[in-house]
Design brief:
Layout (H helix, E strand, L loop, with lengths): L11 H21 L5 H9 L18 H40 L5 E4 L3 H9 L6 E4 L8 H6 L3 E3 L6 H6 L7 E4 L4 H18 L7 E5 L3 H16 L4 H18 L8 H15 L15 E4 L1 H12 L2 H4 L11 E5 L3 H13 L9 E6 L2 H11 L3 H4 L1 E6 L7 H6 L7 E4 L4 H15 L5 E5 L15 E4 H5 L2 H4 L3 H31 L18 H20 L6 E2 L2 E2 L13 H21 L3 E2 L9 E2 L10 H12 L1 H8 L3
Amino acid sequence: MNETSERGRQFYIPVILTIITLVLGIISFQSVFPDYPFLRNLYYAIQLFTIESGDRFYDRGIQGPGITFIFNLARFLAIITIGITIVFTILSVLKSSYFLSRVRSMKGHTILCGFGEVGEAFARNFPDKKNLVIIEKDGSKENLSRLGKEGVKIVEANALDVTILSRIGIEHARSFTALTGNDFDNLTLINSILELIEKLNKGGNTIALSANIGSRNLKAAIMEEWKKERSRHSSELRETLEEIREAADSIRSGGGFQNAGEELTNRYNRLKTKLLNYDPRADDSKSIRGEVKLFNINELAAKYIFRNYPPDYFRPVTGLDDPPVKVVFLGYSKVGEELLKLCMKNCHYINRKKTIIYLFSPEAELIRARMKSVFRNVEILLDVRIFDINPHHLTHKLLAENEIWMIDVIYVCSEEDQFQASYASRARELFGGTVPVIRPFYQSRFWSTEEKSVSPFTFNILDKVSVTDDILNESLDKKAMAFHNRWLKRAISNYLGKLESCLANGSEIKEPKPTMLPWHMLSEETREDNRSVVDFISTKLRTVNQLPKYTAGDKEEGKEINFDFLADEIKVEQLAEMEHRRWMATQLLNGWEPGKDRDPLARQHESLKDYELLDEGTKDYDRQQIRDIEEIIKEAGIV
């Protein structure tokens, strides 16, 4: 059974009967009134559907049996058509009402709005089709019917109509995702759902909301607005930290614990115990916005590519004397831009050499302007060389003149599948079969959906990232969240130690770090830094030969990580320097600059300088992160 609210195709029969009736009627009246114009006879035929029932047919007397039979057939077909139309209309309304009641009675389901390329890939990958509801105003779209036969409930309506959202039992859903092609429509849907939840679901089911937002600036602005809203609410952690700071300040100003009363001392100890037992996962943001995830499908696509095919996967960089990594971008797209950003954050290797990016595109000037507006300090992080040439027109002569050789990986970055294929073919002609070519595509009906394990590495990128784990379950963020929660517990312990020290020597009680917050109350900038830490761990492990590497055109099977390298102080120091350069890259991309002191308003930081110029305390922080890498990996499930 096709699970859909579609109300149109069942009227094909009345439409066909109407056409037959009109044709027969016109033939009948044209025979009786051959001198009348066609439009008048058409008008008489239309009257067959009214109470007049075509009595004018006999105005010129009795007609022959043949034409009379045709006329009577048309007249009775008109009555049958009217009856069938009424019956089908009633059945259609009943069917739609019954269908919507079934959807409204569902529990724990997922609602999808938008059925473009991303929405279709998400629906195709959804594991339990019977628990998926699609709202799409164009019910004639390809593959909707097939999904309906697989059990997907398809509501043919405009999701921006709030009445539709209220009629499908949104308060009982497990998750809702907006994947239309318009950022503002997606945000409108999310806001409509939030308002409905507040009205219909107070104290009830928690719904995970997600939306694809392609504009980086719009996403940042919305996240900042929601951050301000969350700041009006506190969290268990911030409340407790503030209370213990006030208690410690009262104890210090009163002359220490020896002069503090029993009630104040007990209060301080009670708060200390509460902080030591604090579980970051249980601390709610106390804001419904904390349940909303805004993602960028192009960013997810770039992360998949970089996670599975990073430049140093094919040639690990393990020593100071290793040459710089060289990467070629053929074309430039939204996914390519996100991929370039990941290179800026992660291509900081032990050899201390800038990664070289060769980018070939006929829109070189636009790309240069775009990079200046989107990325800050790119020239500090990478050696980007942009060539104003169509990748199809690349020649051996041009490569030789610009000394473009010994390439480690080629990323094909067009937005059109036809160019993805032709660019990849040109790359093989110029660079041979030894240089790995990464060629994602977007439309599965043109290319094999199986991921190739030899160059060119080919796969449907939307199928890889339009999955529930990435879009609904925040599987990628969960690792960053686990890392942050681990840091948070350690930061709490360190802060309590500083409080004890201040109380012992009578010094001023300092406020806790502003980043000592649960995940959903962090700024997007801080979250991004946590994500970057997690992403960079694989690079560190490849540096010490502890992850699989590319061999003989295939992927080597995974193997257990040997953490003996942690006993080598030279390696620890080198990895700590790599971590510092990764952190610098994140800060520089966010617009921070070197300064004498840390000033968030001026966005200046005293640690934005070469590793060897850092004080030992700051170096120790980076060293400790390396020494804890085994514990971090196991706790966060990173590798």
